[in-house]
Every structure is written in C-alpha cells, then in structure tokens.
Design a protein that fits this description.
Layout lengths: L29 E7 L12 E7 L47
Antiparallel strand pairs: 1-2
Length: 102
C-alpha cells in the first residue's frame, strides 16, 4: 500500500499500487487526479498519463429529533434536528420536516 501526498511521487517496481486511505490519511470526497510516468530499461521516461478518480460520499447521515414528550393543547413548541450528524467531512445542509398523518 502507498500513502499518497499531493505533489509527492510514489515509486514502485511493479505495475500496480494500492492507494492507502485511513482516518489519518483520508481521501476526501471530490475529484482527484493521479499521474503515471513509466521508465524503460534504457532510462527513457514516458509522457505522463493522467486519470481522474471521483471519491463519493455514500454514507447516509443520521437524523435525530429532540422534542418535548408532552405539550399542552393550544401551545406552540419547538422541534430540533441540531443533533443530526454526518460522517466528517460531510455536513448537514438541509432539514425537511413533515407532520405525518395520524
């Protein structure tokens, strides 16, 4: 496995490299470009080949509702989704509230 740091080459003797992704070395969601230059046994370098890899966030967020257990008739009250969460680096950007039929 290889730990990739932007702008720092990783040199291997074989044609395959494993991209090591850990909590300490994350590959954030988004577009990432990798470049490969190969060298032959005469020391000649190829032109760079570039590929784009899109890392997608496929982890669903968790909705958490805080509400009073009981409310007096005719009184207003608040619902809070503030404790809802998504795995970093994701963040909650919209809350959709619906009163369900009884």
């Amino acid at each position: 496995m290889a730990t990739f740091t932007p702008g720092q080459p990783v040199v291997t003797d074989g044609p395959t490299v494993q991209v090591d992704v850990t909590p300490q070395n994350p590959l954030r969601p988004g577009r990432h470009r990798f470049q490969l230059v190969v060298t032959d046994d005469s020391g000649n370098n190829s032109e760079p080949a570039v590929v784009e890899v899109i890392v997608r966030d496929e982890t669903r967020p968790t909705a958490v509702i805080d509400a009073p257990a009981t409310v007096a008739a005719g009184r207003s009250f608040s619902l809070s989704g503030a404790r809802s969460l998504d795995q970093p680096p994701g963040r909650i950007v919209r809350f959709v509230w619906t009163l369900l039929p009884a």
